[in-house]
Amino acid sequence: MNHVQDHGWSRNLPEVISNQAELDEVLSRPSPALVESIKDLKSPLLILGAGGKMGPTIAWMARRAAEAAGHSLRIVAVSRFTDSGARAWLEARGIDTWAGDLLEPAAVAQLPESANVLYLVGLKFGTTQNPAATWAMNTIVPARVAERFPHARLVALSTGNVYSLTEVARGGAQESDPLRPLGEYANAAVGRERVLEFYARRQGNPLALLRLFYAVELRYGVLVDIAQKVNAGAPVELANGYFNCIWQRDANDLILRAFSLAATPPSVWNLCGPESFSLRAVATTFGELLGRSPQFAGVEAPTALLGDAARLCARLGRPPTPMDAVVRWIAHWVKTGGRNLGRPTHFEVRDGAY
Q1: Residue 77 · residue 90 · CB < 8 Å
Q2: Which end of the chain is more exposed for a tag (fewer CB within 10 A), N or C?
Q3: Is residue 261 packed enough to be buried (19+ CB in 10 Å), middle (13-18) or exposed (0-12)?
Q4: CATH of the domain spanning 17-216+248-275+307-320
Q5: How far apart are CA 242 and CA 167, in angstroms?
Q6: Where along the chain do its domains lie?
Q7: Structure confidence by residue, pLDDT tens digits, 165-184
Q8: Residue 34: CB atoms within 10 Å
Q9: Does pTM top 0.90 for this prediction?
């Protein structure tokens, strides 16, 4: 697997990551570029949807960057916090928390004023069983948030699923490509983008939309799913034969730095690593690291869900963490029985049914 560009500060990567405390520290480690750029954010930085898979380490990264910059930035993490452990984890790290259901108008009205809002709210899995809930979360909530913060600079996380499958030989989808979403979730994700764009254009507030392709860490993500299948001797379905991904630390850092990209009219950016990876090759590497012989099913289709992150890399730099290091960390984590969140990505899905 190819190395991506190293930014100097990232050379102190561990050989392995042995426990969740080490993992959280690595995932929330800010870059010097973030330490510099976070000085431009005024208190409070409001992080909506902060109780999800990425939110806690994004919030802690923001806290660490502000401390390193000598910037007394207040960070408010907003979530329903159905997991009380996530709330306690954040508060122990000096992050204020605010519990509420953003589908409730009264809850949105009570949010603290903020000039910088990070929008991480979304619903994906379970869409096939309850599509109405996905549409409500992905279209009603952004409308209420946008109305609540008509003057705020907004960075909103979207998904690469807004694109259709692209020809592998051509490369990934570009931000200017037409959106042809597959399935209820992807259509609702386009709805989220369009609602936020509508309000940003009407109100004149800056907005950056980030279309994320597969953030990965050691407890979940497409690479973890592949490693688990290889380790268990389960067949790896090859139809979606190529994919993008990005180490979650790098994604966290770029998301927080994206406030500099928020613009009027809104700007749109693909958020992923600059490379596409062969599913067969990655599974083979995991087989070597785990001492297993990968089992494959089917063949690679000529199309896959891929994104081209060249524009973002040109503006903010290439993600610094080499993916072969991530693969090594995941193999060690899986081999030693590290915790798994039990949230498979369903990377093999090609019809948009999640």
Answers
A1: yes
A2: N
A3: buried
A4: 3.40.50.720
A5: 10
A6: 17-216+248-275+307-320
A7: 999 999 899 999 999 998 88
A8: 23
A9: yes
